[in-house]
Each structure stands twice: as structure tokens, then as C-alpha cells.
Amino acid sequence: MTLLAPLECLFDTDHGNDLPLPPELSALYGPLNFPVREGRPYVIGNFVTTLDGVASLSVPGQTGGGVISGANPHDRMVMGLLRSIADAVIVGAGTLRSVPNHLWTAESICPSLSGAYRELRAALGKSEPPLNVIVTARGDIDPGLPVFRSGSVPVLVISTPEGVRRIRKQDLPAAVGISEAKSEGAIGAGAILAAVARVRPGNLFLVEGGPRLMGDFFEEKCLDELFLTIAPQVAGRDGSAERPGFVAGRRFAPEHPIWGTLAGVKRAGSHLFLRYAFTA
After folding, report:
1. Which is nearest to 267 in space by CA: 75, 20, 19, 117?
2. CB distance 274 to 230 below 8 Å
3. CA distance linking residue 97 with residue 142, whole number of Å
4. What are phi and psi of 172, to 5 degrees?
5. Which residues, in sequence order, are CB contacts of 158 under 8 Å at separation 6+?
6. Do the Cβ atoms of 107 and 114 come closer than 8 Å?
7. Which residues contact 142 (CB under 8 A, 6 or more apart)?
8. Sign of the torsion angle spanned by Cα atoms 227, 54, 215, 85
9. Is the Cβ–Cβ distance between 186 and 158 less than 8 Å?
10. Could you report the per-residue pLDDT of 65-122, keeping only the tens digit for each?
11. Per-residue pLDDT tens for 228-263?
């Protein structure tokens, strides 16, 4: 059993069908619901930023979200919850390099709730862990990392033709899937979703970044919702290194700003957990 206090709900909307959360998760999070999308998966993102909008400190060994959230247990609980309902978790190669020993499962981010996450996944009819999807334009991956070697999670690597050629020269286990996107540069969000759907048909995909990958999903209007944790720290920027927000590599405003609709606000201490819907 976890000793976490329940999230305090400050605002919520009726957002579709309630998921069958086990009592422990229901007590911690409250109702979780999503609308039904016909003919395609529902795509959500999850990110944490500081008060001043920094999503990565860009400091060696401290580039992941844990230092942004302060390893907040409620943030980890929500991350686990979203992974437990996802058919696939999509990350870029930069995110993999920032947490090289990680597996993108609910249990790996919040072990204390492993039983509840497994119960939820079983209730949703998902017999396997979520497909761990690694997106790399250059094929720049370390084949010895646990995500490829552990055998604990199904894995798909998506790359460009040049990147795929580089990947196939490495000693990856035969069980690791490789998909070639017809692109010589950045791999578009639509191409990523199509590749994932061919390997793991499902009704919900989760994007965990990094910022450039998230920018591509916003650019192509492929994101239905964003779960955004606001951590109560100010990181600052001095120009010595890029400290991106949760979107990088794309500019929208003032020409084409993307506006979200607030769908929920929860609170744990001084951390805020926001939920925004977008027109995808």
C-alpha cells in the first residue's frame, strides 16, 4: 500500500467514459475518463516543467524530469497511471539518453503501486506492457541498454532509412522491432503513429517527449491532450545552454498559436497537475 495522500481536485470536466480504476488508484487520483475516438488512437502527452517553463536543465546527469519535479511522488504516480492505460509509450532518443536504464512501464516509475497498475491494465484487457517506442532520426542508440536487452517490454525503434541502416549493423536482439520512416530528416508525428499502429494497434498512445518530439506532435496536430505537471521551482536561464520548455524546434505564435482547453486541475502540496485538451 502507498502512503500518498489523494490529489486534491480543484477543477474537472466530464471528459468521456470513466476507466475502471482499482480502488487504490481511484482514491489517489479520482475519476479518469477519455472520449472515444473512432478509427484512430487517442494520443496524450505527459510532461513536467518548472514555474518558469523549463522542461530540461540541460546539465549532464540532470536532464530528466525527476530533477524538474523534485522526484515528486504524486508526479510519479500520475506518470504510472498514464503508462498503465497506454498501448504504447513514445519517446525520443534524447529522452532515452537522459534516463538510459529506464523502462517505460508503470511499475518502473512508481513501484509501490505496481499491483494496482497491473490490476488496471488487466481490467482494460491489456495483457502486455506498453510498447516502448524509441524515435531516432540518426539511429544513434546504445544496443546494450535495458530497454533493448531486458526482454521485459516490447520495443519498436523508428528511424530514417539512413538510421535504420546504422541500427541494423548493431547487435540488437531479434525481438526488437525496427520501422523505417520515409524521411531523411525529422520523423513526422503522423509517420510515427502509423508505424506504431502497425505493430501495436490500440486506442491510446502516450508521448513522453522530449521537447522536439512534442513539438512535432503539436505541429501536425496529432496530440489530443496534454497532462502537464507544474513543479514549484524556478530554474532560470542564462544563455549558456538551451533550457527548453516542453516544446522545442517549432514556433507557433504569433502566426499560428495553438490554444488548449482546460480539462482538469489537481493539486498535491505546491505541485499542480493540469490537463488540457487540443483539437487534433
Report:
1. 75
2. yes
3. 9
4. -85, 145
5. 133, 134, 135, 136, 179, 180, 181, 187, 191, 192, 195, 196
6. yes
7. 100
8. negative
9. no
10. 999 999 999 999 999 999 999 999 999 999 999 999 999 999 999 999 999 999 999 9
11. 999 999 999 999 999 999 999 999 999 999 999 999
Indicate yes or no: pTM above 0.70. yes
Are the C-beta atoms of 32 and 196 separated by less than 8 Å?
no
Between strands 225-230 and 271-277, the pairing is antiparallel
Cross-strand pairs, 268:
271
Q: Residue 29: phi, psi to the nearest 5?
A: -105, -35
Residue-wise DSSP of 133-200? EEE-SS----TTSHHHHS-SS-EEEEE-HHHHHHHHTS---TTSEEEE-S-SSSPPHHHHHHHHHHHS
Q: How far apart are CA 84 and CA 245, in angstroms?
A: 26
Cα separation of 20 and 120, whole Å?
Answer: 7
Q: Give CA–CA dist 127/118, Å, rounded.
A: 9
- DSSP annotation of 5: P
Rg, C-alpha atoms of the chain: 18
